[in-house]
Write a structure and sequence with these properties.
This protein is of the alpha/beta class. It has a domain of 243 residues: NAD(P)-binding Rossmann-like Domain (Rossmann fold). A nine-stranded mixed sheet has the order 3-2-1-4-5-6-10-15-14, sandwiched between helices. A three-stranded mixed sheet has the order 7-9-11. A two-stranded parallel ribbon has the order 8-12. α7 links the parallel β5 and β6. α6 runs parallel beside α7 and α8 packs parallel to α10. The longest helix has 21 residues. The protein starts with 5 loop residues before the first strand and ends with a helix. The relative contact order is 0.12. The C terminus is likely disordered.
Length: 353
C-alpha cells in the first residue's frame, strides 16, 4: 500500500512516532521510497538516527548522508507554515503525531496547545490547499480526551479532528481521516512510567481517585489502529480501537505486587475525568463497525458522512467504565507487555527493535 510512497511523520520522535517508524520500515504496509521524521527537537532526532543506524557515536556518514537514506530526518515545526510546506512538497501520506499532549502543561499554557494542536493541523491543510500538493492521505492522531473534552488538551484535539475532517471539502483530492484512542501503555509522560519511578524510590504511589478508569492499549495497538484507518477509512471517518479498560487502582496494585509500598489518593487534578470516553452518546448513532477490532465514527457533516442507513452499532457512549478488566486480567495484560519487571526504558527500547 505504501510501496514507492513518501511518508511524513510529524512529531516522529515521540513514543508513537518511533514505533510507527519501526513498523513502516518492516515493510508490512509495503516498502516506502522515503520516511521523513519531521520535528523540532534536533537532539531527539539525532538519538533516533543513531538508534536506527545501530551506531553509538556520530560519524560524517551518519550525519551528512541523511537525504540519501530511506529514513530521513528534517528539523521543522508544524506551527511554521513555511517549514510545513517544504516537508509536504513531495509527500504522499502524512501522519500528524505532533502535539502538546500533557494535560497539566496544556492547562497552564493553553495558547501553546492551540498553536501546536490546532494551528499545526491547519498549516498542513493550508499547505495542501494553497499549493495544490499531491498528498493522498492525511491521518490525524487524536485522543479519547477529545471526546466530550473537559481539558485544554482534549479541546484542542477535538478541534484538530474537525479541522482535518472538514478539509475533505476544501481539498477534494486528499483523504483526511483521524484515529482516536486511549492511554498508551508506557508512552512518555503516561501513568505507568510515573508508577515505575514512584515504586523505584519506595513510594508512595499516587492515584487521583480510587474510581478512575482508563482505556489501555500498547504502542503497537495504537499503530495497528493507524494502519487500519489507512487501509480502510473513508474520507472523514475517525477510527476507534476496541480495547480493554481498567481501574487505575488495579494497575497500581499490579505494578506494586508484594512490595510494601503505600498507595496515596491525591484527588482529581484540574482537567481530569473519572472515566474517559472514546465515542460519545451524540456520536454513537453515526458509528459503524470496521472489522473485528475497530469502530468508525462518520463525519458530522452531511456532505462527507456516510448514510445513516448503514446501521449504527452502538446504542450509547463507549466509555472506559464499560467492561472493566478484573485485577487478575490487568496483571496478565501488564505481564504480557513486560511492564511488571524492569523499567519503562527497557520497554521502549524493546518496542524499537
Amino acid at each position: 500500500m505504501l510501496t514507492g510512497k513518501t511518508v511524513v511523520i510529524t512529531g516522529g520522535t515521540g513514543s508513537l512516532g518511533k514505533v510507527l517508524t519501526r513498523r513502516l520500515l518492516s515493510g508490512e504496509m509495503g516498502v516506502p521510497a522515503r520516511i521523513v521524521v519531521f520535528s523540532r527537537d534536533e537532539a531527539k532526532q539525532h538519538a533516533m538516527r543513531l538508534d536506527y543506524q545501530h551506531r553509538r557515536a556520530a560519524t560524517d556518514e551518519v550525519i551528512y548522508r541523511n537525504f540519501q537514506q530511506i529514513l530521513q530526518f528534517r528539523i521543522g515545526d508544524v506551527r511554521d507554515y513555511h517549514s510545513v510546506c517544504a516537508v509536504l512538497r513531495d509527500a504522499d501520506v502524512v501522519f500528524n503525531a505532533a502535539a502538546l499532549k500533557q494535560v497539566p502543561a496544556c492547562e497552564y499554557f493553553p495558547f501553546e496547545a492551540v498553536q501546536t494542536n490546532i494551528g499545526g493541523p491547519e498549516n498542513i491543510v493550508r499547505a495542501i490547499r494553497e499549493n495544490a500538493l499531491k498528498v493522498q492521505t492525511v491521518v490525524g492522531i487524536s485522543t479519547d480526551k477529545a471526546c466530550k473534552p473537559v481539558n485544554v488538551m482534549g479541546m484542542t484535539k477535538a478541534i484538530q479532528e474537525r479541522v482535518f475532517i472538514t478539509a475533505n471539502l476544501s481539498c477534494p483530492d486528499t483523504r483526511f481521516i483521524c484515529v482516536r484512542y486511549g492511554n498508551v501503555l508506557a508512552s512518555r509522560g503516561s501513568v505507568i512510567p510515573l508508577f515505575h519511578e514512584q515504586i523505584k524510590v519506595g513510594g508512595p504511589v499516587t492515584i487521583t481517585t480510587e474510581d478512575m478508569t482508563r482505556f489501555l492499549l500498547s504502542l503497537n495497538q495504537a499503530v495497528d489502529t493507524v494502519f487500519a484507518a489507512l487501509r480502510g477509512a473513508r474520507r472523514g471517518e475517525t477510527y476507534i480501537p476496541r480495547v480493554p479498560s481498567a481501574r487505575i487502582t488495579d494497575v497500581a496494585r499490579a505494578l506494586i505486587g508484594d512490595r510494601k509500598i503505600e498507595v496515596k489518593v491525591t484527588g482529581i487534578r484540574p482537567g481530569e475525568k473519572v472515566d474517559e470516553i472514546l465515542v460519545s452518546e451524540e456520536e454513537a448513532h453515526r458509528t459503524v463497525e470496521k472489522g473485528p477490532g475497530f469502530y468508525a465514527i462518520q463525519s458530522i457533516l452531511p456532505e462527507i458522512g456516510g448514510s445513516a442507513d448503514q446501521g449504527a452499532c452502538l446504542k450509547g457512549e463507549y466509555s472506559s467504565a464499560c467492561s472493566l478488566l478484573s485485577y487478575d486480567q490487568v496483571k496478565d495484560l501488564l505481564t504480557k507487555q513486560k511492564l511488571l519487571v524492569g523499567d519503562v526504558v527497557a520497554y521502549e527500547e524493546d518496542m524499537l527493535r
